[in-house]
Design a protein that fits this description.
With about 375 residues, the protein is an alpha/beta fold. It contains 14 helices and 15 strands. Helix 6 packs parallel to helix 7 and helix 8 packs across helix 9. The radius of gyration is 21 Å and the shape is globular. The termini are far apart.
Length: about 375
């Protein structure tokens, strides 16, 4: 559904992006708005330069229900990056509500932001917002999700086909480790309005089929809604109870699948995937009910996005490492694409070492505590 041209970015490259845009300054600071606040945040200390002082960045996050990451990780890391640069910013959350998203977009545009960074709820709403911003001379950044037809100046995300491939490869590994080499796999995909969900599926479907497994039940979950995902999967499982594995597009949907399998006495017996390395997902990986999650180093993503936003606010061209084709506009969007990491029980400690979460947050059940002790996670 799209073509891409990219070179895989590494940690040093991401650091260079941040340093280039932020000037390496540790002075200055600003305050972020709370998730429920509607008033723009204001800077409480002098910026590191006159250019930084003139910059004001608006950020619209999508929700907190589809994945905990938006409030527990992205908000924090974006806040840290803008504060370190002495840049005024306003971070708001649309709460999964398209009307609220539009209201936030309008208020940020009239509130004087120089750059607007969005995680769209769907491409139509996101594109409308970006076009309003462009009409006012405001540059936009697509953060994590590409807005088809939107015209963003930059796109910062993970290589989402690679994220899906990591899920698919992980599922295949878990199946083969269990001695299963053939059979039918069910796909529980993300929202049909999210371009990322399309790319994830592209990656995992290809990996699963290439390994010799058959794709059976294959359905999308509107709005990444976990409750709806559980209902949909229960219907899928009723139709095909002989599935050997499930590729669930993220940890939230993975949890919904595992709840259904648990009711049927099959949790841990049928491998299930996820992504985002949420605390709940990591706990399930430790317990053995979820075979793999995919860790996306969100700090690197947030730092790269903040660097791009600050560069645009200063009238500079952000550093990127490739392009992604917008299949609606035909535009090659300058992009920063990062590589994901598959997390199995054996390497859960990598996520702790990276300070993404803590042992106290994931070693929370008896089975998980036992695994943590065995793996030296403390």
């Amino acid at each position: 559904m799209r073509t891409r041209s990219l070179a895989l970015v590494v940690t040093a490259a991401t650091s260079a992006l941040v340093l280039a845009a932020c000037g390496g300054s540790s002075s200055g600071g600003s305050s972020s708005s709370a998730a429920s606040s509607s008033a723009p945040a204001s800077s409480s200390a002098p910026a590191s330069s006159s250019a930084a002082a003139a910059a004001k960045v608006g950020v619209i996050l999508p929700d907190s229900a589809s994945s905990a990451r938006w409030e527990t990780a992205d908000r924090k890391y974006l806040t840290d990056a803008f504060t370190a640069a002495g840049v005024e910013f306003d971070i708001q959350n649309a709460g999964g509500d398209k009307a609220k998203f539009t209201t936030l977009c309008d208020s940020m545009i009239t509130g004087g932001v120089n750059v607007l960074m969005i995680v769209n709820l769907d491409s139509d709403t996101g594109a409308a917002c970006e076009k309003k911003a462009a009409a006012q001379g405001i540059k936009t950044i697509d953060y994590d999700r590409l807005t088809l037809g939107g015209g963003a100046a930059a796109y910062v995300s993970f290589d989402n086909v690679a994220v899906g491939k990591a899920e698919g490869d992980g599922l295949v590994k878990c199946l083969k480790d269990a001695g299963v080499t053939t059979g039918t796999v069910a796909l529980l995909n993300g929202s049909p309005t999210d371009n990322n969900a399309t790319l994830f599926k592209e990656g995992y479907k290809k990996a699963i089929e290439a390994a010799g497994f058959t794709i059976g039940e294959d359905q999308a979950v509107p709005d990444w809604d976990n409750a709806k995902g559980g209902v949909i999967f229960e219907q899928m499982f009723t139709k095909d109870p002989k599935i050997v594995g499930v590729d669930a597009a993220n940890d939230g949907l993975g949890g919904a699948v595992i709840a259904v399998l648990a009711k049927n006495g099959l949790a841990g017996k049928i491998p299930v995937t996820g992504q985002d390395a949420t605390d709940e997902g990591l706990t399930r990986v430790l317990e053995g009910t979820q075979c793999v999650t995919v860790y996306k180093a969100i700090k690197k993503e947030a730092d790269a996005a903040a660097a791009a936003a600050i560069a645009l606010a200063k009238g500079e061209t952000p550093q990127t490492n490739g392009t992604v084709k917008d299949s609606v506009s035909g535009m090659d969007v300058p992009s920063v694409l990062l590589e994901p990491q598959a997390i199995f029980k054996a390497n859960v400690k990598d996520v702790i070492t990276d300070a993404f979460t803590t042992a106290a947050k994931i070693c929370t059940t008896e089975a998980a505590k036992k695994a943590c002790a065995e793996l030296g996670i403390s």
